[in-house]
Amino acid sequence: MTDLSAKLDAMQNLLNEVREASGGDSYGPTQINTDTRLKEALEIARRAYNNRRSRCNFFDSKNLFGEPAWDILLDLFIRQASSERVLVKSACIGAAAPATTALRWLNVLEEQGLLSIAIDPEDRRSKLVSLTPRGFESMLRYLHTVAA
Question: Contact at 8 Å (CB) between 106 and 117?
Fold first, then answer.
C-alpha cells in the first residue's frame, strides 16, 4: 500500500508540473492563490465585455463589431465567476447578436466542449447555460495571460 501511495504522489507531482507549464493551476502546497487569480480575471473580463459594448456608442452601426462566440464566453465567465445562473435567453442577450445567431454559437461552443446546456431543475421549461470546467479554465488561463 505504501508503494501505491508513493506512486500516486509522484504522479500528482508530475501532473502539477504539466499543469503549471501549460498555465493551469497546480494542486497542493504550491497552488497559486485562486481567489486573487479569479478576482483579477473577473475584472479583466468585465472590462473587456464593457469595452466591447461601449464601442457602438462611437460608431453609427452596432453591426461593425460582431463576435458573438467571444461575447458569450466573456458573459458566461463573468456571470459564472459571480455565482449567477444563466438561462439560454440571457446568454443570447449577452451575445449582443440576433437570437438565431447567438443560439447557433451556443451550439458551436457546446460542441467544442466549452459550455454545457441543461434543463433548469427549478423550471423545466427553461435551459441553463454554463461554462464547462474546460471552458472556465481556458477563460481563466487566457485572462490571466492577458493580465500579465
Answer: yes
